[in-house]
Automatic annotation (TrEMBL):
GO CC terms of this entry: periplasmic space
One Pfam family linked to the record: Metal_resist
Major localization listed first in the record, in broad terms: periplasm
Source organism per UniProt: Klebsiella michiganensis
Record's protein name: Zinc resistance-associated protein
Compartments (UniProt record): Periplasm
UniProt KW keywords: Periplasm, Zinc
InterPro entries hit by this protein: Metal_resist (IPR025961)
Length: 79
């Protein structure tokens, strides 16, 4: 479903960059993207509920991220 949504995004942007964008097609693709997004959200909720019922914490994913500590990202002259 994510691949379908990405495909629709490409199609949407291609239609918008045409010499004369067809507003009906653009609106149609936008509606299809909205439906796919809603379906993905529904699947996410079902998955979250299944995890909760199994006693599994969804967690925070990979976290906020950072460049890390230490001596990295300083260039070659900082030994």
């Amino acid at each position: 479903m994510r691949q379908q949504l990405q495909s629709k995004r490409y199609e949407y942007h291609a239609l918008l960059t045409a010499d004369k964008p067809d507003s009906a097609k653009v609106e149609s693709i936008a509606q299809e993207m909205e439906v796919l997004g809603q379906q993905l959200a529904q699947q996410r909720v079902k998955f979250d509920l299944a995890l909760a019922q199994a006693g599994i914490s969804r967690g925070v994913g990979m976290g906020p991220g950072s460049c890390g500590g230490g001596r990295g990202h300083m260039g070659m002259s900082h030994w």
